[in-house]
């Protein structure tokens, strides 16, 4: 959706550049209402989360929703996942109330938060927003006119739609971490080539000019995995009870970093021009190393399996060991009954 947003905005900017009046900025500004209206309408077609329904003891609705979401699976597999979600919710309730502070004080959640903030921060730290926002300024340094630069940016945005469509189609085939590493390496290489060429740029060298424009197109291609996964990964790693808070913090991180670079990038491009790309080259190298050493693969894992991955599994997985899960559930119910009985006795 971000790629579609950039695509529409870029071509609106190019089209409106032919108008010299107030329409050239009023229409693009007003057009932002359209995606919001589409989003509001789309909400009514979404399925309720099975886990959210089960947390509110609406088990029949949860099973119906799960069957819709897992329509290609066998009945037994769906039933096992239903029991697994039920067991984990029961174990969560036994732990007591969860506060906002828990996401920082609980080590497994804190680790998820750091990883989520990290992958979101590496998005703007890749340099993508500087190139998207200040593309005309970058191409002006190369001697390209404003209208031609808007056309180049628009073509790049159109290609991003193609890259993202392909990326979404193959995302679950290759996982999360390997594509992120390939993305970081490709972004670093494209930025390094342009930074070096920018230092020794000769305006009369048309081959060099074309090469630098091509590197920006290549940069857009390699950004695709990061652009998709930086939003998918945080949503996958947080448990339901802190997902809203976790995603809020990670998204804030993305836009905070974006805002910082948006503020001083024009001055940096004016002062040091393409040498500014060395900064983002370094950030992409750091991102590559972080993906390699610190980020676990989350492909194909359920929320309950994610708990086990981060070290806070509460009950055995029903999908992996139904007998152990049933025994743990029975033990939990007995303990809950004893605690309830003791509380009732003390009140009496």
Automatic annotation (TrEMBL):
Q: Does the keyword Hydrolase apply?
A: no
Compartments where located: Membrane
Major facilitator superfamily (MFS) profile domain ranges (all copies): 1-299
Q: Which GO terms describe its molecular function?
A: carbohydrate:proton symporter activity
Alphabetized UniProt keyword annotations: Membrane, Transmembrane, Transmembrane helix
UniProt keyword annotation of Signal present: no
Query: A single GO CC term, please?
Result: membrane
Q: What is this protein called?
A: Major facilitator superfamily (MFS) profile domain-containing protein
Q: What is the lineage of its organism?
A: Eukaryota, Fungi, Dikarya, Ascomycota, Pezizomycotina
């Amino acid at each position: 959706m971000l790629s579609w947003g950039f695509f529409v905005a870029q071509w609106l900017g190019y089209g409106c550049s032919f108008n010299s009046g107030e329409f050239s900025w009023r229409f693009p500004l007003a057009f932002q209402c359209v995606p919001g209206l589409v989003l509001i309408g789309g909400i009514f077609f979404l399925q309720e989360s099975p886990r959210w329904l089960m947390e509110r003891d609406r088990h029949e609705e949860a099973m119906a929703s799960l069957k819709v979401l897992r329509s290609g699976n066998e009945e037994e597999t769906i039933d096992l996942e239903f029991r697994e979600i039920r067991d984990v919710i029961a174990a969560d309730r036994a732990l007591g109330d969860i506060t906002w502070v828990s996401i920082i004080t609980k080590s497994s959640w804190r680790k998820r938060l750091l990883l989520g903030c990290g992958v979101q921060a590496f998005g703007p730290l890749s340099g993508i927003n500087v190139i998207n926002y200040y593309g005309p300024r970058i191409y002006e340094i190369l001697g390209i006119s404003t209208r031609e630069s808007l056309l180049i940016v628009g073509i790049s945005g159109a290609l991003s739609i193609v890259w993202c469509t392909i990326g979404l189609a193959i995302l679950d085939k290759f996982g999360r971490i390997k594509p992120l590493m390939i993305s970081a390496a490709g972004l670093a290489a494209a930025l390094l080539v342009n930074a070096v060429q920018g230092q020794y740029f000769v305006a009369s060298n048309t081959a060099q000019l074309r090469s630098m424009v091509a590197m920006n197109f290549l940069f857009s291609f390699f950004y695709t995995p990061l652009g998709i996964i930086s939003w998918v990964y945080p949503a996958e790693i947080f448990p339901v009870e802190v997902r809203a808070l976790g995603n809020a913090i990670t998204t804030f991180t993305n836009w905070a970093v974006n805002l910082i670079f948006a503020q001083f990038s024009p001055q940096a491009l004016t002062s040091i021009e393409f040498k500014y790309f060395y900064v983002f080259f370094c950030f992409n190298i750091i991102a590559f190393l972080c993906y390699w050493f610190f980020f676990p693969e989350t492909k194909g894992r359920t929320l309950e399996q994610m708990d086990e991955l981060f070290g806070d599994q509460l009950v055995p997985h029903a999908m992996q060991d139904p007998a152990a899960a049933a025994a743990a559930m029975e033990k939990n119910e007995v303990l809950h009954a004893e605690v309830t009985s003791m509380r009732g006795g003390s009140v009496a």
